[in-house]
Specification:
This protein is α+β, with helices and mostly antiparallel strands. It is 40% helix and 16% strand. GO terms for molecular function: epidermal growth factor receptor binding; growth factor activity.
Length: 81
C-alpha cells in the first residue's frame, strides 16, 4: 500500500520521477522514468550493450534452428528422389 507524497515532498524525486510513500517508512520513495535510477532518480544510465546480448543470442539461436530445418528438408528431399 502506498500513499502520495505531501506537497513539500513532491520535489523529492528528480528527472520526472514519481514520488510516493509507504506508510511504514518515514522517507519518500521514487518510481523513476526510463534511463534514470537511484533512490531519487538522480543517476542517468544509458542502455548498455549487455542489455542487448539476450536479444542477440535469441536471434542467433533462431537463425541456427532455421538452418538446421532447411538442412533436414534438403536431406529428406534428396533421399526421396
Amino acid at each position: 500500500h502506498q500513499e502520495p507524497c505531501t506537497a513539500s515532498e513532491a520535489s523529492y524525486c528528480m528527472n520526472g520521477g514519481k514520488c510516493f510513500k509507504i506508510p511504514s517508512m518515514s522517507t519518500p520513495n521514487c518510481v523513476c522514468n526510463y534511463n534514470y535510477a537511484g533512490s531519487r532518480c538522480d543517476h542517468f544510465q544509458l542502455e548498455s550493450a549487455s542489455d542487448n546480448s539476450h536479444q542477440t543470442g535469441m536471434i542467433v539461436a533462431i537463425a541456427i534452428l532455421v538452418l538446421l530445418i532447411l538442412l533436414l528438408l534438403i536431406v529428406i528431399i534428396y533421399h526421396m528422389c
